[in-house]
């Protein structure tokens, strides 16, 4: 079904319009909120599906040069950016703790400071049953 995303340039409302292929470009699109014709089509994000193999190859290419990893231990923001990129490339849902740690790194907090503030960060339920 040809649904198109639009944004009103007057009231900033985002909305969707159904237009047949014959109507697209010919029929005027009007904002449902303020009735303005001052609208612009929004192009939604496009997701590209990658195989696990291509994701691993992409990461391996980035980190195959040891120079790419130099200085990460002294630059929490660079470490956070690398971890965020790796998380995206893996394409899996990561726990909220991952985002918490990466957010803190990107703000410049050291791994040691994060560990002190969130001491049980790495413990799952199985680990905490072991006396942790």
Please outline what is shown here:
By secondary structure, the chain is an alpha+beta fold.
What does this structure look like?
With 132 residues, the protein is α+β, with helices and mostly antiparallel strands. It folds into two domains: 3-42, Rubrerythrin, domain 2 (Single Sheet); 52-119, no CATH class. Helix content is 37%, strand content 11%. Strands 2-1-3 form a three-stranded antiparallel beta sheet, with no helix packed on it. A hairpin with a 5-residue loop joins strand 1 (3-8) and strand 2 (14-18).
Widest sheet: strand ordering: 2-1-3
Assess the beta-strand content as a share of residues: 5-15%
If you average the pLDDT, what whole number results? 80
Gross morphology = elongated
Strand count: 3
How many domains comprise the coordinates?
2
H/E element sequence: EEEHHHHH
Unreliable stretches, pLDDT < 50, 5 or more residues? 125-132
Query: What structural class is derived from the secondary structure elements?
Result: alpha+beta
- Helical residues, percent: 25-40%
Return Rg in Å: 23 Å
Output the number of helix runs.
Answer: 5
The end-to-end distance, rounded to whole angstroms, is 54 Å
């Amino acid at each position: 079904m040809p649904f198109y995303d639009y944004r009103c340039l007057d009231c900033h409302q985002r909305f969707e319009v159904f237009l047949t292929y014959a109507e697209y470009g010919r029929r005027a699109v009007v904002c449902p909120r303020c009735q303005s014709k001052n609208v612009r089509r929004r192009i939604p994000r496009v997701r590209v599906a990658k195989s696990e193999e291509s994701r691993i190859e992409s990461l391996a290419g980035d980190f195959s040069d040891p120079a790419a990893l130099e200085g990460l231990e002294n630059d929490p923001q660079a470490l956070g950016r690398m971890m965020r990129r790796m998380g995206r490339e893996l394409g899996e849902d990561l726990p909220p703790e991952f985002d918490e740690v990466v957010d803190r790194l990107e703000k410049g907090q050291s791994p040691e400071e994060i560990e002190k503030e969130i001491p049980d960060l790495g413990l799952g339920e199985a680990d905490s049953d072991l006396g942790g």
